[in-house]
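Retro notes, item 3 of 5
We never archived the inputs for the zinc ion complex last cycle. Fixing that now. Sequence and ligand:
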Amino acid sequence: MSGYDIRIIGDPVLRQTAREITEIDDSLVRLVDDMLETMYDAPGIGLAAPQVGVQKRLFVWDVGAGPEAIINPEIVESDGEWLFEEGCLSVPGLSWEIVRPKIVHIVGRDLDGNELSFEADELESRLFQHELDHLDGTLLIERLDDDTRKQALKTIRDLQFGAAEQPRAAGGGLTLP
Ligand code: ZN
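Structure as it came back at the time:
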């Protein structure tokens, strides 16, 4: 087993919508193992498949209760508001205060194809929303207000690792690897 390199903002894979998983096979089980290893090495508490360059609707997490994985996750209900300083392994070293729903109900499948259903609050809820965004090609900076996002993109450009990232509002920008 070996870990992956985590894709960093500016990598186009992070901006694509991941595909539904239609088959659970050994390679998917290996992918989950490798993603968990990558997540623990980082270290982080959640990791979505696009962050390791794999366009599948899958993420892994561990908020202290052991490793978990969910396939084809969907949020079916959300409630409340919660402010939390959120970071991302794909935007290393930075974090922003972001308001999102406080509670979510998420459903999906486990690696045996069984139905999963979690009601999550606060940190775990935030993690689910953040990782699900990754499956839709959305990074946390899209959750910032316009001024904060402009400032964030400038900071990211200044840090070099996101040299190719352009504000979406600009439209038609060329995204380079
Ligand atoms: Zn992230």
